[in-house]
Every structure is written in structure tokens, then in C-alpha cells.
Amino acid sequence: MTSKTSTTTGWRRAVTGVVASGALAAGLMIGLGATPALAEPATDATVDAEAPEAPQMTPDQALLAIQAKYDTGAGGGQVSNLINDVMKLRQQGFMPSNSNGQALIEALNFTGASQSRVIEALEATKTFQLRNKLRNQQAQSQSPTSIGINTLPPGNQGTILPAG
Fold first, then answer.
1. Range in 28-37, 77-86, 92-101, 120-129 with the lowest mean pLDDT
2. Interval 3-41: pLDDT, tens
């Protein structure tokens, strides 16, 4: 089977493309495209208004900041050992609670010379994570209850007996 094509379709497509491109170019040149964004002038109400509150730090960001500040490796002290334990538990999937995160952020923002707030917050976080880990292990260790479905008959150690 042969198909019939017109000999005039090539130049028709070319003319249509030229006309469409010319119209588009002319429209952009006279400014029919997107309008530029103009800034609004500052008024007294906007100048006097307080700046929006900075976004708060997340518990993960607080942990990373504490790790960067206090993690000195093995033998680095109580804070270093606690942050290592907390980060290991975090990598295992046991995240700190929201209240632990707030305590970590407050301890990080505390400008006192003592590290007691950081230590208390890390200990509370580690306790929470270990409790969740223990709950998870207990939930996994419970064997499912079987009511006789898909079990071998008594006396059969998994061998298949021939039929008949």
C-alpha cells in the first residue's frame, strides 16, 4: 500500500512556522509578555512591624550542632560519650521525642559555663531512645500465635510422605 502525500505540505509548514514565530517575536518586542515584578514602597506600617520570627531549630539540627561542638572521640568526656550513644541510637532509627528535642535546643542555646543542661538533655534523650529500642525488641520477640493452620502433624519432622 502506498500513501499519497502532497507536494505542497513542506512549504505550507514552513510558512506557518515563519508567521507564528514572527507573531511571537513581535508580541515580546512590544511588551505583551510577562510583566516585570515591581517592589512595593515601604510604608510606616511595614517599617514599624516586627520582623518575622526566625525558623526554629529541629531536634536533628540540635543533635548535629551538639555533636559538632562536643564530639571529640573516645575519652572526650561525659558529653562526648553521651552524644556518641545518642547518635548511634538515632542511626538505628530511634529518634528523640519532641520534648527531648526542645530540651536539647534549650541546652544548646544556654550560654552558661556549665555543661549540666546539655548532659541532662542528652541523658533524657538516651533514656527515651533506649526505652523505645527495648519496646521494639519486645514486640519483635513475641512469636505469632498459630491455631493449627500451615503446621505439620504431630510426629512429622518435615518429611513428605508418599501418597497412598
1. 28-37
2. 666 666 777 788 888 888 888 777 777 766 666 666 666
Distance of alpha carbon 119 from alpha carbon 83, whole angstroms: 9
Domains in the chain: boundaries = 59-140
Q: Which residue has the cell 502433624?
A: 153
CA nearest neighbour of 88 among 51, 52, 54, 130: 130
∠ CA 102-106-66, nearest 5°, is 90
* Averaged pLDDT for residues 70-97: 83
- Identify which of 92, 81, 75 has the alpha carbon closest to the alpha carbon of residue 118: 81
Kindly state the average pLDDT of the residues 120-126: 93
In 3D space, the residue among 77, 60, 56 whose CA is nearest the CA of residue 125 turns out to be: 60
One-character DSSP codes across 84-129: HHHHHHHHTT-PPPHHHHHHHHHHHH---S--HHHHHHHHHHHHHH
Residue 124: which residues within 8 A CB-CB, separation 6 or more?
A: 100, 103
Cell reading at 103: 530540651
